[in-house]
Design a protein that fits this description.
This protein is α/β, with parallel strands linked by helices. It has 15 helices and ten strands. The radius of gyration is 18 Å and the shape is globular.
Length: 318
């Protein structure tokens, strides 16, 4: 698989710019005090699907339209599903999305609203993914892997490109890692724009497969017991791991309780809803705050797709 270059990211920017506006990058003064750093939040929840993934979906589906692809199939816990559904609707391609049986209902309904067919299978993302791969082989659909797709990575990398355009001297970018496309994109762009910038990945300690794959330099399978569906991958993925091994400065594991606390802090300080994956960079930043003192730090708020039930439970537990 081709590892995207900065040229691919610039191509992706030209592809998606007619369909997506830039997202804000804002200095957050309460978080400055909380972390003793200059803290900026990249608000990817402002995108039409409420998450960064749509950048990659539009970049990939635009290219598949030119290849005359009729039907695509993929698996997702939610944000990737919405990305592919949204982009498929945009370009007139039929989309079948396989989601775990306990998928976030808010993300399920949003995926359906874009016209995709939703199929439920399995207890977690990886069981849904395996079923989608089997179905694609049986029916001849174009299977879209949530991470091992160069055009997805170069598409989502445009968020990092926007960060460097707005803040060229950024010291640290902290990105959640589920499949790893967002963190991989940040590595590719930082290598080209400012190699001194640290890119730090974050994952739940209750779903550490990507972290362990990065640490051991081999693809590892592990548990997925986190409530943070955007971080819940059971295995490491080949393409994103290749990029992360070369470009990631560090990888931080955080507890689910630390993520929950950061979700509430994001409401209080950033005045916005961050889903669990979207709040995880704040949890990681607090955990390593001694390393970030005085630096310009960007937290990638990857998405804000939290259901009302999840929000009620989050606030009730405070």
């Amino acid at each position: 698989m081709h590892i995207p270059s900065i040229a691919d990211v610039l191509d992706a920017k030209r592809t998606i710019s007619p369909y997506l506006g830039r997202t804000p990058l804002r200095l957050n003064f309460p978080l400055n005090k909380y972390l003793n750093s200059d803290v900026y939040v990249k608000y990817e929840n402002y995108l039409p699907t409420g998450a960064f993934k749509v950048r990659g979906g539009i970049n990939l589906l635009s290219n598949l339209r030119n290849q005359n692809v009729k039907t695509v199939i993929t698996a997702s816990t939610g944000n990737h599903a919405q990305s592919i559904a949204y982009a498929s609707n945009l370009f007139g391609i039929r989309a079948v999305i396989v989601m775990p049986e306990m998928a976030n209902p808010t993300k399920v309904e949003a995926t359906r609203s874009y016209g995709a067919e939703v199929v439920f299978h399995g207890k977690d993302f990886d069981e849904a993914r395996e079923f989608a791969e089997q179905t694609a082989a049986q029916k001849g659909h174009r299977y879209i892997h949530s991470a091992n797709e160069p055009l997805l990575i170069s598409g989502v990398a445009t968020l990092a490109l926007e960060i460097f355009e707005d803040l060229p001297d950024v010291d640290v970018i902290i990105s959640p890692v589920g499949g790893g496309s967002g963190a991989s994109g940040a590595c590719i762009v930082s290598h080209a724009m400012n190699p001194k910038t640290w890119v730090i990945g974050v994952q739940s300690e209750n779903a550490p497969a990507q972290y362990k794959s990065w640490k051991t330099k081999t693809l590892v399978s592990d548990k997925t017991e986190t409530f943070a569906e955007g971080l819940a991958t059971r295995v490491g993925f080949e393409l994103t791991q290749r990029v992360l091994r070369e470009g990631l400065h560090d990888f931080v594991l955080v507890s689910d309780d630390e993520i929950r606390n950061s979700m509430v802090i994001m409401i209080e300080t950033a005045h916005t809803l961050a889903e669990a994956a979207g709040a995880s960079p704040l949890a990681a930043a607090y955990k390593i705050r001694h390393l970030l003192k005085g630096k310009k730090v960007v937290l990638v708020l990857s998405g804000g797709n939290i259901s009302l039930d999840q929000l009620r439970k989050l606030l009730a537990d405070r």
